[in-house]
Amino acid sequence: MMGYDYMHRVYNFSPGPAALPLPVLEQARDEFLDWQGNGMSVMEMGHRTASFEALAAQTEVDLRELLNIPSNYKVLFLSGGARVQFAMIPLNLLGDYGTADYVDTGIWAEIAIKEAQKYGRVNTVSLATWQTDPNAAYLHYTSNETIDGIQFHYIPETKAPLVCDMSSDILCQPIDVSRFGLIYASAQKNIGPAGLTVVIVRDDLLDRASKLTPTVFHYKTQAEKQSLYNTPPTYSWYLAGLVFQWLKKQGGLKAIAEINHRKAKKLYQAIDKSEFYHNPVQPDFRSIMNIPFTLKKPELDTLFLQEALQAGLANLKGHNLVGGMRASIYNAIPEEAVDALIAFMRDFETRYG
Ligand code: PMP
Questions:
Q1: CATH 3.90.1150.10 is the classification of domain 252-352
Q2: Is 83's C-beta closer than 6 angstroms to any atom of ligand 1?
Q3: Catalytic residue among 35, 62, 108, 317
């Protein structure tokens, strides 16, 4: 392709919407005006056309293959983000006024808890005491706390169906889907652009909704209509499909997991070795996707971010609620980006530490 100067692309450590794999963006660019000889862009095409339905079906096949999703699970491609699921889950699974267990791991878990409390009783479970309710309709947990940089490296044992917010770590490594009742994830980290949410739900949970559940929010409606009950975010869906194909080309989740673990290990080692940078998370719960860190001299935060950007390292500012820095190193972040970040951090420490 002509003309684009790749020197302008930065290493983008954004927590989400986040970097997409370059080959995906290039393919989308090449197909933008005319998708597969249709004479139009995917985004100009009806969602009930044969062409789009074929794209949708292939996207689901690819995701099922990547995650090894058993046949008794439906895969839904819905609009809205994970916050819509914060409401849809209790509406669909709590019945009228039931109780659900919610594990409190951090900022996102707490937002999910607040929303669920509108629809029923929430039993808050702490990691330390793990007191679940024997009658809980489900147990909800957040596998990766994007802001706090806390990740589960095991799947909790429960009697109640397990419901998991995997927004920021889905597809980062293989998982055993059969252990879950429902998995959901906003697209804008490891799946594609914002606007799309993937829900993987076991068949027996499709039709337990409270009577008040809006039709468009009922999992059963969406499952019966192949997620085409309402108009889905078609272009995001198409890009998610390209991301899944890219992941398959990388060798699937086992291969990407190896790279992800290596990237995270390097960065944690660099932080731990230094007297200048600090990560507060207990090693067993450190995230391989979002790595927050602080500078010993917080008055240098702004300078750190300015100089990082000049070095082509963008979006390293931590979330306002916690401050400091955060490197989000999702699947699309190449290992060279992490190497460049570590080199920059060392250099900054040498000059200002
Ligand atoms: N859960 C987690 C773990 C997240 O990281 C986010 C977004 N950063 C959300 C939920 C909310 O997602 P959305 O903004 O797409 O509703």
A1: yes
A2: yes
A3: 108
Alpha helices for the chain (secondary structure H): 22-30, 50-67, 82-93, 107-116, 219-224, 234-249, 252-273, 301-310, 335-352
Chain-wide mean pLDDT for the chain? 96
Domains of the chain, residue spans: 26-249, 252-352
Q: Cα 348 to the chain's mean position, in Å?
A: 30
Mutate to test the pocket of ligand 1, among 78, 108, 169 (most ligand atoms within 8 A of CB): 108
Q: Is the CB of 184 under 6 A from ligand 1?
A: no
Q: Residue 176 and residue 185: Cα distance in Å, rounded?
A: 16
Alpha carbon distance 315, 275 (integer Å): 23
Give the C-alpha separation, 222 to 38, whole Å.
Answer: 27
∠ Cα 149 126 101 (to 5°)? 105
Residue 189 alpha carbon to ligand 1 centre in Å: 9
Q: How far is Cα 301 from Cα 309, in angstroms, rounded to an integer? A: 12
| Ligand 1 atom closest to 186 (CA) | 15
pTM (2 d.p.): 0.97
> Residue with the nearest Cα to atom 4 of ligand 1?
167
Q: Which of 74, 189, 220, 263 is catalytic?
A: 189
Ligand 1 geometric centre to CA of 186 (Å): 6
Residue in 82, 20, 16 with CA at minimum distance from that of residue 328: 16
pLDDT one-digit tens code per residue, 299-345? 999 999 999 999 999 999 999 999 999 999 999 999 999 999 999 99
Cα separation, 342 vs 335, in Å, equals 11
- For the question of residue 296 being annotated catalytic, the response is no
What's the CA angle centered on 177, arms 171 and 183, to 5 degrees? 70
Residue range 26-249 forms a domain whose CATH class is: alpha beta
Burial of 7 (0-12, 13-18, 19+ CB in 10 A): exposed
Q: Catalytic: 108?
A: yes
Local confidence band at 49 (pLDDT 50, 70, 90 cut-offs): very high
